[in-house]
Amino acid sequence: MAKRGFSSGLLGLKFMQKAQEKDRREELLAEQEKKINEDKWVVKGTETRCRVVVEGTPAPGAVMGRMSFKNFNPQIEALKSEKEEGQNKKLHAARLAKGESGEDPSVSDAEMAKRLAKPNGEDEFFPKRKKQKKSKASK
Predict the structure, then answer these.
(1) Which of 19, 33, 42, 80 has the fewest Cβ atoms nearer than 10 Å?
(2) What is the rounded CA–CA span in Å between residue 4 and residue 122?
(3) How many CA atoms lie within 13 A of 46 on its CB side?
(4) The pTM of the whole model exceeds 0.90
(5) Domains of the chain: which residue ranges?
(6) Whole-number mean pLDDT of the chain?
């Protein structure tokens, strides 16, 4: 038995016409959206992804992941102090191997000026002035 539809008199009423128009609009919007989605294309593999690079050794100035302030966490404070002591020992050993001492060598002002002076007596900061003075003196 076939399903019977609404009568023409009922379909002619205003509220029924509005309902049919609403259904048509929804179908058109769905069709347009489907067409837009089909028209778009994306190259596979171009999606932005987060890349994590992990290297074997951390940067020399890297900070430890966990921190503690004013001895709030004594275990972390102990680990941090051990690490700093180890770094200081390595640095000291490297300096001793190079022959450097912990003292800063002092150089007198006169000795420093003598070392930095040019052998021909020209001052590198004012070459134009000296050239002008020499040219005026020769005239």
Answers:
(1) 42
(2) 113
(3) 4
(4) no
(5) 66-97
(6) 77
Distance CA 123, CA 113 (A): 12
Provide the residue count of the chain: 139
Amino acid at 14: K
Take residue 83 and report the two structure tokens written for it: 């690490």
* Amino acid type, 38: E
Structure tokens at 75: 């275990």
pLDDT in tens, 57-97: 767 667 667 777 788 888 888 888 888 888 888 888 888 88
Q: What is the pLDDT at residue 18?
A: 93
Which DSSP helix (H) or strand (E) runs through 57? none
DSSP per residue, 76-119: HHHHHHHHHHHHHHHHHHHHHHHT--SSPPP--HHHHHHHHS-T
